[in-house]
Amino acid sequence: MTLASLKGLAQGFLVTAPAMLILKFFGNEGALGSATSIGAVIAAIIMYVLGRISKPSDRIKIFAAGLSLFAIGAAINGVLFSQAGVVIFILLLLIAKPLMDLAYFPIQFQVIDIVSKIEKRSEFAYILNHEAGLYVGRFSGAATFLLMANYGSADIALRYAVVIIGVLQLCSIFVAKNIIAQGKTLSPTEGGIDTKVLGTVAEAMV
């Protein structure tokens, strides 16, 4: 639930922040399409390669890389807050998002798989809990942005709210590390999920 809440923090920003920044600094959505296309191609290549060569033991490294890229991009945008900063932020964001998802979903499956066996309930019973955690994070992220925009300005919110969310999300690394460690003690398989799942998720996302 904690990990889901931290993930939900940035979900709203992943969709709205790039468009708002592009409109502010470029005045049209055409630049957003170009940046998105370039970033998507790079992300697809990275995901395919990682899906082929990575192992379950690499999840934390992949997850940390994605979160770090998001935080770095947010920091660059906060410092520069210019056209160059926006382009760098969007490119890093488009690379970071699939990396985070690539590691996050196997961890989610691991938790559902282990807990459902312990409590002898259907796996689907835990999806609602996960979604509740996401919504808590989304609400917190949106509230942060709205409060900063209301008591400061839209520019302050666009510049610093993303940085705050990016830094907070780095806490996900320690939460995920703890979940995986507990999973190894409770499940006989490595990380509580088949070793082919990470590659399968990557290929499906590509």
Structural features:
206 residues; mainly alpha; Growth Hormone, Chain: A; 8 helices; 84% helix; 0% strand; globular; disordered C terminus
Beta-strand segment tally: 0
H/E series: HHHHHHHH
Radius of gyration: 18 Å
CATH class: Mainly Alpha
Q: At the third CATH level, what is the topology name?
A: Growth Hormone, Chain: A
Largest sheet properties: none
CATH superfamily (homologous) name: MFS general substrate transporter like domains
N-end to C-end Cα span: 27 Å
Strand content: under 5%
How many independent structural domains? 1
CATH architecture: Up-down Bundle
The chain-level mean pLDDT equals 79
Describe the structure.
By secondary structure, this protein is mainly α. It has a single domain (2-205), classed as MFS general substrate transporter like domains (Growth Hormone, Chain: A, Up-down Bundle). The protein has helices at 2-25, 30-53, 59-80, 83-119, 127-151, 154-169, 171-186, 197-205. Helix 1 packs antiparallel against helix 6 and helix 3 (59-80) runs antiparallel to helix 4.
Would you summarize the structure shown here?
The chain has helices at 2-25, 30-53, 59-80, 83-119, 127-151, 154-169, 171-186, 197-205. With 206 residues, the protein is mainly α.
What's the arrangement of secondary structure elements?
Blueprint: H1 2-25, H2 30-53, H3 59-80, H4 83-119, H5 127-151, H6 154-169, H7 171-186, H8 197-205
Helix pairs in contact: 1-4, 1-5, 1-6, 1-7, 2-4, 2-8, 3-4, 3-6, 3-7, 4-7, 4-8, 5-6
